[in-house]
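INFO worker-7 received task bundle
INFO bundle size: 2
INFO processing item 0
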Amino acid sequence: MALAGLLLGGCASAPAPQDERPQLLLATPQQVDPQLEIQLAKLGELLQVPDLTDEQRARFLYDRGIRYDAVGLRTLARIDFNQALQLQPNMPEVYNFVGIYATQAMEFDQAYQAFDAVLELDPTFIYAYLNRGIALYYGDRPELAVEDLTSFLLAEPSDPYRALWLYFAQVELDPEQAKLQLADHRSRMDESQWSVGLVDLFLGRTSGGELLASSREGLSQQGELAERLCEAYFYLGKQARLEGDPGKAMNLYKLSLSTNVYEFVEHRYALLEMRQVAEAAMASAESEESL
């Protein structure tokens, strides 16, 4: 890993004071686990066995799909998930991935249908509330998103990530009230969690530089820095968007994607965020041309 002395906000005409110039922390992108590659090969062999039942084949397709997803091969994963559902249409975990992929592709109606199917098959599948809430949030249905994300938060009220996604949906409805509620949720969080700093970022209790510096503290395993930076840069990008700085947000989302932490929610939706920023810029340009 290395520190790159770069401004988060682009070019400046004069050097900023040292304490106002946060440095970008870079980590080695997450590498594919060789055991995962071996598992993919074995599952490919198992799927060639001719006398598998539909249930067995569907399960192996799902198992291979989640491993494709973990290494970023999402098109192959999506193919496996769709084939699994054709063989066994009562697998809520598969519908959950189908909904996530539909959200990433901004196919929101398909995403809602998939998450509805998850909850019809298994009402206790709590992550369907998160994923449907995110789909509703990106699909410009903040009221419904708040309902789902509140249900998800109530299952674990001290989770910083659950509080943040609820906050993003609530900001669309009432920014001041959203911040008050986020502060209330913050009071129930464990101070020892690094992720509490993400909440503090949106409450104005910590800076981007302080958040990035804290990401290096207390690391316990290989790859953990990449995971933290995936999250940190995504939420710094969200903050930049909320503050009306889309250019800065785009650069931060790119940094989040560069970590290769494919399974994280933040990595999944960084590209979608970038698409929204680009579409907003294009719409703004077209509006100006028409004047």
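INFO item 0 finished
INFO processing item 1
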Amino acid sequence: MTLDALPRAYATVTGTDATFITPDGHHEPISASPDEDIRRVVVQRATAEARRTGTALELVTSGDRGEHRLMVSGTGELTTVPTTPTAASTVKRHREASDWSAPVPSHAVESDSIPKLTDMANKEFSEDPQRASFIVADDSLDDWHPMGWRAAVSSIGIRVPESASTRRRRVAEMNVSRHWAGYRAIAVANGKGGVGKTMTTAMLAAMFARIGGGNVLAWDNNDTRGTLGWRTEQGSYDTTVRDLLTATNDLLAPTATVSDISRFVHHQSADRYDVLRSNPELLATHQRIESAQFDELMRVATRYYRLVVFDSGNDESADRWLRMIDGSHQLVVPTLPSPESAESAALLLEALRERDEHSARLAENAVMVVTQPETGARRVSERIAAGFNHQVRVVDTVPFDPALKSGPLRFDALRPHTRDAWLQVASAVSAGME
């Protein structure tokens, strides 16, 4: 395989953190522990990707460790790659480059060997050095503005590095602020009621709308007593999904404007997303939505919104539930630290793996959210989270917060550590959407 034919992964390194972008476009935040070198963590991730795909890949790194190009095999063997087109057919191996490889002892190579090695490769292969551009891309991760006591110290000329938690938060915010070419849909699902689906829907919608910008819709896709409307603000109109269904032709007309949707959704003033309500006062028999009707609603939603977050019902056989799965790019499964909730989540994942190829990918790529109760159950939460580690892509735990227990769901009402937890959940969700 020629160098140009190799799949390419990217990593932006900042301090002890990095954003790894897989060849198929997934963004993944990764971090090094205090006794690790972030370069080795990056190479470990690249090696795992090469092993998964069964072929070597090109790793392009940038950030505060310099810019480098390496070919990484599934066994972790590294080869420096020339940076000029004239040398594209020539590759020189450098065993010293194993400083980027996790299996090599830390004393084997000096920590700054990679920049020196890359400089040597550039000199050897560059016949016509090109002028560096005066236009430098702005990397938001490097644009750190200190806050709190760090800001006070910085004002007198002493720069204090940001903490690992602050840097991790900024990496997550960068992931959540990402926009895609085309709409994306997130299905929040668990066949058991009372496990936190509505809460998870509202928190994810708030995170993506507040950090990534507007045009985010939280859709109560529920035949039976959907409560998303009860726990969010009501807009100027008392409208539900049934009202929107009768207006789909008008909203899809060429003359329709972006503001026309406002009559049918309920804007959240502080959290900046819109809610499409079901009617919790009607029986399920009066508000069932068939597949064709769901598809029409979906056409409207994807015309007016860049991101849709579904708060699903509990009837996994309903047409609207199945069509939601068919149209979603990411599955999020909330559960409480209880055997019944966890078993329901596990059964859902098993059913999706057996349903079809798309559903199986959703299950494999799912994000599990374990929400802790008011008191105790920490060990149970850890045990349940560990039980899903090999069933889904990410398992996150969200601490109890009284603001989420009942009443209106407002992100600003959360405690700081709860906000950080939901930010990490949203970051994990964003990383799974192509």
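INFO item 1 finished
INFO post-check item 1: The chain has two domains: 3-127, 180-431.
INFO post-check item 1: The chain is about 35% helix and 15% strand.
INFO worker-7 idle
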